[in-house]
Amino acid sequence: MKKLVGAGVFVRREPNDYVEQLRTGSMSVGTYSIPVGGVDDQSPHHEDEIYVVTTGRATLVTPSGTELVGPGDVLFVPAEEEHRFTEVTEDLALLVFFAPPYSGR
User: Where in this chain does the entry annotate a coiled-coil region (predicted)?
Assistant: First the structure.
């Protein structure tokens, strides 16, 4: 058992901030923070992702559509799918679960 201290807490660093809190052989967990008005410049990942919005509001844009997101929302993005958070109207903090573990860009 391990308690993930600080997971899901917004951290203000410019332009964005990703901090990994856990890595195992099968998954990784981290917190992605985007400040109000920030630009999400991520590119597709090789891993499936689950995002849990802990604070803030934005729009998630994918080829299959857009979704307004806010606290408590849970989002699944399959590996290799283009996606981006836009219109960040409140400081956004997301718990991000990667499977397999995040390999970087």
Answer: none
Counting the structural domains of the chain, the total is 1
Say what the alpha-carbon torsion angle 14, 68, 57, 98 is, to the nearest 10 degrees: -60
Query: In Å, what is the CA distance from 70 to each residue of 11, 67, 75?
Result: 17, 10, 11
Please write the tens of the pLDDT for every residue from 12-61.
Answer: 877 788 999 999 999 999 999 999 999 999 999 999 999 999 999 999 99
Q: Are 27 and 4 in contact (CB under 8 A)?
A: no
Query: Which structural domain, as residue segments, surrounds residue 85?
Result: 17-99
Residue with tokens 């856990």: 22
What CATH number does the domain containing 53 carry?
2.60.120.10
Note whether residue 3 is domain-resident. Answer: no
